[in-house]
Amino acid sequence: MQACPPPPPSNTRRLFPVKTKEFLRKCLGSRYVNYRIIALIDVVLSVIASLSAVFISSYVLLTLTGVYFHEAVAEYTGMEHPTLSFAILSAGISLLVLLLFPVYKGIIRIRTFSYGFNYLWLSLSKALVLSLVLGVLSREWFFGVLYFVIDTLFTLFFLTGFRTVVQFIWSVLNGAPTTMSRTPALIFGVNDKSSQLADKLSNSYQGKGLYVVGFVETEQPATRMTVGGKPIFYTPDTASFSALLDKHHISVLLFSGYDVLHENAPFASICIDRKIRLLVDQEPRRILNVDSRPPIEEIQIEDILGREAIFLNMKPISEALHDKTILVTGATGSIGSEIVRQLARLEPQLIVLFDIAETPMHELRLELQRCYPNGHFAYVMGDIRNPQRLDFVMRKFHPDKVFHAAAYKHVPLMEENPCEAVSTNIVGTFNIASKCLEYGVDQMVMLSTDKAVNPSSVMGATKRFCEMIVQSLDLAIKRGEVQATVPTRFATTRFGNVLNSAGSVIPTFKRQLQRGGPLTVTDPRIERYFMTIPEASQLVLEASMLSHGGEVFVFDMGDLVKIADLAKRMIRLAGYEPDKDIKIVYTGLRPGEKLYEETIHDKEKDLPTAHNKIHIVQTREESFERIHLMVLLFRQLARQGDVDGVIYLLKQAIPEYKSLNSELFASFERGEHIPFDLEEELAKVAAEPSQQEII
Q: How are strands ordered across the β-sheet holding 183-188?
């Protein structure tokens, strides 16, 4: 299915030929018009209204009484040119009345009729004075009364009509929607923010093209049934809400903030099912400096996952990091780059970006130079598997904190390349940890994954072993088994899928939608935890502040989300019907893939922290000496390309590691293939000092 073509240009934009439009743009090119020009135009329009009223009244007087007004005035006053004299008199009186009611001041093109009474009083005052004068001059009081009525109406019509025409021309020239073309919308909730949102959208020049029908409230309003002239609709349940949508042909539903959105997720789901656009006012996020999206933005799939967004007080973190040098490994990845952005906002002394990927590093460098011109950054190309390169970084920059985000994380790829997974994830993490200790880094925070809990894949097993490395090293330092001049504090953060990250399903679904489908899901039962990239990055920073060393921090991810339901929602958000317009194809579970993920092992104890979204889990204690020997054995086996040996060692080190959908790797668990005796190999490694990294 091809992508939908862009809509044709609006009819309003064709009202003027191109040359005429350009001429009008020059005439109305400035947003502001000198008030003297407006006053002059108003005087001219007022005089035209007065002359028109005189001629109409004269005709009526002649028809009814046979008296011709101009002859009566000329006979009574002796004026040779009564019309010219009247025009001059009208201009003078109009000018005086305009000084009393200065409607000519202000910005004419965006003027509303909040000063409507001023136009009325101006018209009445001028007409009253002139009608009295004309009544005296003509000695026909019927004529004066008739003139008063007609002049009042004409003056009011000309002055307001002039402004309406200018507004219309300006809106057409600048692409603003006309009243007839605006889309009916509802605002969910009644509070100060929602009323401000209505005020923001009441002006068509916001460019949203929305007409606010009213407000939706799930609780019975106490007294007020309107806000700013807009009605409040009481919809206690989804059925009454659906009826309201049908009655007013609603095409857009707006939320005043993400708190309102998440509290009313069922109502948002109805709109998705009915292909109604969902918009959210993101001004609160801009104030909190969480992201830089526009004030009003279309809701993305990540906004309706049914849990409250996580916001942190970044001020204490900023105060703690302002004079620090911070090293971020895997700095160009989805999480690593967002950690860099979050840190850049906190203005530390120096941020060192370390990554092996050249092009992403270049792109991130350009972004940081543009967004944070006063920030201090160092860009280092390197591989965490290279201890000598890490030595260089440590000696040159002497970082105070290290956020270790570098890792291979794609499950299917790591199932096919276990030696590379071990080299990067396990050996690389050990290299980082040992260098942090050697060079006196105050703290290292390693990023793990929920796939490390009861791992079913090579990737998950390697990340669980990484947790064991940093935990055992921290414990060995506290017990005095490993000496250090500065006892580095090691911590681990464990969380689930991150929306729109490189490994997330969301970008995949978006690409498939752009191609017209189908959307591929491995299994209709598969479920995952989700959080946004900024949320994950901020929680990592928060965990670093809570750490005393050795903790495994687990983030509250909310409820599990079915991937199939996620696919259906994304199809509906795109304006299509699942399995009708866009198909969902189930491809079967891939090697190493679980039906659902876990954040805590059954035997791990969950402990609270000062932040209700962050918990600490107590895992089993491991001997760092034995972990160290296993790392050296992993390195040896990976360099040899010994896939069987690598997998066997992972399963021996992590008893809960059970391969799924992988017949080859599952054979080790059945005892069908034992490549070597583990204890003998560890003894060999221990007997070869040349292989060991000295800590």
A: 226-227, 230-234, 210-217, 183-188, 252-255, 277-281, 296-298
d(CA 660, CA 672): 16
DSSP state of 4: P
What span, in angstroms and rounded, lies between the C-alpha atoms of 445 and 426?
A: 15
pLDDT, tens digit, for every residue of 302-312?
555 555 556 66
Q: Which domain holds residue 412?
A: 315-560+576-618
Residue 692 lies in a domain: no
Instruction: Provide the number of structural domains found in the chain.
Output: 3
Whether 19 is catalytic: no
Q: Given 451, 463, 568, 651, which residue is catalytic?
A: 451
Q: Are residues 368 and 423 in the same domain?
A: yes
At 65, is the secondary structure helix, strand, or coil?
A: helix
Secondary structure (3-state) at 184: strand
Environment class of residue 49 by beta-carbon count within 10 Å: exposed (0-12), middle (13-18) or buried (19+)? buried
Q: How far apart are CA 292 and CA 294, in angstroms?
A: 7
Residue 532 contacts residue 497 (beta carbons within 8 Å):
no
- 207 and 165 in one domain? no
Count CB-CB contacts under 10 A for residue 192: 8
3-state SS, residue 254: strand
371-374: Cβ within 8 A, 24+ apart: 371/341, 371/344, 372/344, 372/345, 374/347
Run of H or E residues at 466: helix 458-479
Tell which residue, 272, 281, 267, has the closest CA to residue 191. 281
Structure tokens that stand for 666 in this block? 């599952």
- Give the residue from 249, 242, 177 showing the smallest Cα distance to 206: 177
Report how far residue 603's alpha carbon sits from residue 622's, in angstroms, rounded to the nearest whole number: 15
Let me know whether 291 and 395 are in one domain: no
Surface-to-core class of residue 318, CB atoms within 10 Å of its CB (0-12 exposed, 13-18 middle, 19+ buried): middle
Q: Do 462 and 414 form a contact (C-beta atoms < 8 A)?
A: yes
Q: Residue 391 is part of a domain; what is its CATH number?
A: 3.40.50.720
Greater pLDDT, 82 or 473: 473
Q: Which positions ≥6 away from 361 have C-beta within 8 Å?
A: 331, 332, 353, 355, 379, 381
Instruction: State how beta strands 489-495 and 497-499 pair.
Output: unpaired
Do residues 177 and 204 touch, judged by C-beta distance below 8 A?
A: yes
Q: Please check whether residue 377 lies inside any domain of the structure.
A: yes
Task: Please name the residues in contact with 439: beta carbons below 8 A apart, sequence gap of 6 or more.
Answer: 394, 395, 398
Query: What are the Cα distances from residue 232, in Å, to 104, 195, 357?
Result: 36, 11, 54
Other C-beta atoms within 10 Å of 424: how many? 23
Kindly state whether residues 149 and 191 are assigned to the same domain.
no
Residue 223 in domain: yes
Encode pLDDT of 541-556 as tens digits.
888 888 898 899 988 7
Query: Is residue 649 in a domain?
Result: no
Per-residue pLDDT reduced to its tens digit, 137-162:
656 667 677 778 887 888 778 777 77
Phi-psi bin for 549: left (phi > 0), alpha (psi -120 to 50), beta? left
How far from 541 is each of 402, 429, 595, CA to CA, in Å? 11, 19, 30
CB atoms within 10 A of CB 113: 11
Q: Are residues 326 and 245 in the same domain?
A: no
